[in-house]
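This is your field. Have a critical look at both lines of this record:
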Amino acid sequence: MSFIPFRREGQMSLRDLQEEMNGLLARLWHTGVSTGPFDGQDWAPVMDVLEEDDRYVIRAEIPGLDAGAVELTYSGGTLVIKGHKDAEYTDDQRKSLIHHERRFGAFSRSVSLPAEADPTKVNATCHNGLLEITLLKKEASRPKTIKIQVAE
């Protein structure tokens, strides 16, 4: 019995191999982040971290989750986002799935922030599956405008 790692049977040209790899990468990027091989999680939300003059903003996509299903902690310069998305299918339904891309299960994401982030001034909102966390910078680390006086 021969092992063929790709869907096509028989000989494969380099073009066939390239098409197969492109399809594999497209499935990887369009089905959400699967972190299983690296950290044992079934999925993890994708996120962006922005630095503005007076704050840090973290935006994480958590589709299908209510704010109550997510826990935020901030300690030692690290923000941790944890949560769990319950599977919507019974075992019998899972057996009859024809195509499955959505991810379920527990997740945890950590973001290390500079010491300028003020842990006492954190705000988090969730709307339409987008979690937005804002941490203000400490007053001493914010840019200051200095007025230049004209010398006589």
